[in-house]
Amino acid sequence: MNVSVVLFTADLRLHDHPPLRAAGDGSRRVVPLFVRDRAVDGAGFAAPNRLAFLADCLADLDAGLRRRGGRLVLRSGDVVGQVRAVAAETDADEVHMASDVSGYAHHREDRLRRALEAEGRRLHVHDTVTTVVPPGTVTPSSSDHFAVFTPYFRQWCRQPLRAPLAAPRAVRVPDGVGSEELPSRTELTGLSAGLVRGGETEGRRRLAAWLRSGIRAYEDRHDDLAGDATSRLSPHLHFGTLSPVECVHRCRAAGGAGAEAFVRQLAWRDFHHQVLAARPAAARADYRTRHDRWRSERTAAGDIAAWKAGRTGYPVVDAAMRQLSHEGWMHNRARLLTAAFLTKTLYVDWRVGARHFLDLLVDGDLANNQLNWQWAAGTGTDSRPNRVLNPVVQGRRFDPDGAYVRRWVPELAGLEGRAVHEPWKLREEERAALDYPDPIVELPEALARFRRARGRD
Ligand SMILES: Cc1cc2nc3c(=O)[nH]c(=O)nc-3n(C[C@H](O)[C@H](O)[C@H](O)COP(=O)(O)OP(=O)(O)OC[C@H]3O[C@@H](n4cnc5c(N)ncnc54)[C@H](O)[C@@H]3O)c2cc1C
Predict the structure, then answer these.
(1) Choice from 210, 231, 234, 350 to test ligand 1 binding pocket (greatest atom count within 8 A of CB)
(2) CA distance 43 to 270
(3) Fewest Cβ atoms closer than 10 Å to its Cβ: which of 5, 69, 315, 412?
(4) Ligand 1 atom nearest to 222, measured from its CA
(5) pLDDT tens track for 309-355
(6) How many angstroms is it from 84 CA to the middle of ligand 1?
(7) Beta-carbon neighbour count of residue 90 at 10 Å?
(8) 262, 338, 368: which to mutate for ligand 1, most atoms within 8 A of CB?
(9) Angle between helix 350-360 and 366-377 (nearest 10)
(10) Which CATH number among 3.90.1170.40, 3.40.50.1820, 3.40.50.620, 3.40.50.11690 corresponds to the domain 3-127?
């Protein structure tokens, strides 16, 4: 076979890349292609923070290919039209790509397969590129997917793990394939000031540093908000600059309780992916309806604005929301408590919060974001859908000395100890000097509203 096209999507790497390996083994020449998909941009997924990270990833992928004698070909427009055009220009026999889970990804795959087959070409879709265990591989006896994590995890652990693949030594691209210029993050506006750098090189450096010095303490420290002791590998897993299969191999080789706890989180990622693959509508609709009549952007505009701005008067919530806007990233515990605050304490539709997160998160991911939001709102897979998190208790528990709040809420930086989580308990004149809002809602009232709404009076 002469030419194969490799369509990169959420797998922007050279190491452990089954489509690239298969194309290289089967063909003399390979076209590494990325299509800037107008449909994805048009659906509101082109948030500046992710576009910047993507630009870094494409530049790094291109540099890695050039070191191997190749280069990245970039096109933009309709993905099916662009792949067909490149395949026709190079007379390619095959196209290789990774499988993905969203409704859009399934539709894209179907359209692509039909279009290519009509022209006598073949589409090969590879599993275990974007997840460790492909969605649908492990299922309970009575359903097409698991709705509960623990039994899923038990089976997930028993699945065979393929060996990671080395990066190709050489990539030979056919002559004369036209490419658009690669984007650069310097062209973008509206980026979070503390946004991290993307790219496979950076992802591998972070993974190595994490395995060397972070993972050991992960089990004990992952919920410590101020300690910031999680891997921060999520954008690399989202863009596929790191292979989740390779991560599991390397963690297991590192061994220990921290590595085990970390691998469990990677299984959570797979869990949400298999839910979305089986129920694509869960990206927009309740996975399990609780018949909520949520407050909306129209009826709760002031509360939503305060939540987004980090001005709710609940310090740990405000700290987290400000971290999100400054970094385009937020600690998992902080995501959970801000999402629970919006949906249960303010009783606002989870889709409002999920949209805001997707507008800012550098790791914003349809499966992980929407299904974690649904978890927090009690419309997803949480087996205790009506539990409510108290933001003061959460603050005291996961930020016991207030360091996280002081870091992100400078108005409270002068407060010590517990006062930082309950500034409304300060004396009147001390409070007045703070320039920090009073709580936008009283917790007992909020709890009563939520219980009423869920029929739990
Ligand atoms: C409301 C809400 C929204 C979220 N939105 C996203 C999102 O858009 N993208 C995203 O990648 N994660 C999301 N998460 C999951 C989790 O918060 C992040 O993956 C994690 O904070 C990323 O930081 P880390 O890489 O340091 O995580 P680590 O603790 O180091 O975990 C390692 C990896 O495991 C995976 N992981 C960890 N926790 C979860 C989880 N609860 N669900 C699924 N996968 C997990 C991630 O890929 C993560 O990078 C969300 C969680 C909540 C509660």
Answers:
(1) 234
(2) 24
(3) 69
(4) 29
(5) 999 999 999 999 999 999 999 999 999 999 999 999 999 999 999 99
(6) 35
(7) 22
(8) 368
(9) 150
(10) 3.40.50.620
